[in-house]
Amino acid sequence: MKILTLDVGGTAIKTALMNDGVMENPHEMPSEAKQGGPVVLQNIQKIIDACEDFDAIGISTAGQVDSEEGSIIFANENIPNYTGMRLKNILEEKYHKPVFVENDVNAAAIGEAYYGAAVGQKDFICLTYGTGIGGAIIIDGKIYGGAKGVAGEMGHILVHPDGLKCGCGQRGCYEQYASCTALVRNSFEANPEWGSGRIIFKEFYAGSKEAEKIINDWIEEIILGLVSLVHIFNPSCIVLGGGIMNEQYIIDRVNGRLQERIMPSYRCVEVKHAKLGNNAGLYGMLATVQQKIK
Ligand SMILES: [Zn+2]
């Protein structure tokens, strides 16, 4: 079976043909998301038009997705006029092939579950640390979507009541303290020359005690959210994604500190970094389509 997979983000649309599960011709094009949903849709269609032979389409996309209807429930200002777009209907009418749509964080989690860091795990959670923090909950091998399919917004767990203001309207959300953006903000405040995650880790590895403190304080913020999640979901594994998580130091320290903070009966949990990187969404759509049409 040939499944055309796409991963629609704020900057690029990544795509690859999955031919009997083997990735062929991975490439990407600008999504032109700032120009709005209709332009993104045109770019999706350009990719599909360029693919001569496929049996189904799987699309992972930014935004909150109704995966049953294959539509965008809500997209923020990163993709204007994308909210409400019925991707599945539009593309099935045009191409006469089955189309499946999933939120990008969920798709990446499914990818990790079937082809990456969480192979063999049935109950786990996935968090991605970047500008904000995204999350996905996998229960019994399936995404837990909640009543409207939008469960897993772990970035908005309240960790510091009356704390920093968040884009969601609340104060003190997890992503204001534990995202990659928060680390960079704290680093920059300490030293205006430390303006990226890469630089602060370079300083840390070079022996800077100040950089070490900033990083360790930030890791405590990461753990704050994870402690609650572990006690709610009793996961066997937590997969941490986002480029910054390639720093093994973070994974090791989170593993150690988390075990100290949680109750003994939850200590089976293992923290791992995501394995599939930028391709997690594409593999997730491969697994999603395989499940839906087998
Ligand atoms: Zn928030």
Automatic annotation (TrEMBL):
What's this protein's name?
ROK family protein
Q: Which family does it belong to?
A: Belongs to the ROK (NagC/XylR) family.
Organism, per UniProt? Fumia xinanensis
InterPro entries for the chain:
ATPase_NBD, ROK
Question: Where does the UniProt annotation place the signal sequence?
Answer: none
Q: Which Gene3D superfamilies match?
A: 3.30.420.40
